[in-house]
Amino acid sequence: MSAAKRLIVNADDLGRTEGVNEGIFDAHRRGIVTSATMMVNYPAARRVAALSRDCPALGIGLHVALSGGVPALPPEQLRSMVDAKGMLPAKPAGLAGADRTEVLAEARAQLNRFREIMGRDPTHFDSHHHSHREVPAVFEAILTLAWETGLPVRNASPSMAEQLRREGVPTPDHFVEEFYGEGATLNDLIGLVEDLPLGTSELMCHPAVVDDELRATSGYAEPRARELDLLTQAAVRQAVQRSGVKLINFGQL
After folding, report:
1. Which CATH number is associated with domain 5-252?
2. Strand 125-127 and strand 59-64: pairing?
3. Which residues, including other chains, have CB under 8 Å from residue 11's CB and lie 6 or more apart?
4. What's the pLDDT band for 3 if we cut at 50, 70, 90?
5. pLDDT at 29
6. Where are the domains of the chain?
7. Which of 135, 136, 141, 233 has the smallest number of CB atoms closer than 10 Å to its CB?
8. Cα–Cα distance, 182 to 166 (Å, whole number)
9. Phi, psi angles (nearest 5°) of residue 63
């Protein structure tokens, strides 16, 4: 790529609900979203393969989800990771005592389910709630998947970026996570685009058509509708063009 500034706009949580699916594909068709990461352990994930056929330019990676929801493996195989009801912990802190072998097994099971659903490998890996930034065992598991597949990984901190490069794992130069909550405004998004550093950046986002299932299961629901609106604004697309930013997905790293 000859562009001095490249940007991957990655929508997290694809497959979580039908409304999340609808919002992400809309943000790709009408807006600046170029990439998404899928949570494979939710029923709505089964619809993603069909939805993606009309959007071949949307890169789809694996959102390794080890906090919140149910695992891909039977709970009895993950005794250090699940509660009495077979549920994964609500937040990454609940994985602090997890057995590394079980963490890797569940990550591999989610990769296998992605392949089953999509019929191919993901474009890259990241994690729900940034658990690969918060829990060393999760980072080790995702690093192992990257070694085994040669695929990129989201770098969620400067130290992680340095380690990934040291290990020879492809990763963007910069990670932008400020487009979230109170930081998800039109001025903020345009400013992030206009102020991108040289190299390749990833901007994380969470667009969705907010449905009842999302409201019932996520503490971050209603703001996703605002993100969808902002990511499809003409002013944002104009800022991308005006700033000379090249939009890409992880498959183009």
Report:
1. 3.20.20.370
2. parallel
3. 23, 24, 27, 28, 33, 35, 36, 37, 205, 206, 207
4. low
5. 98
6. 5-252
7. 136
8. 35
9. -90, 90
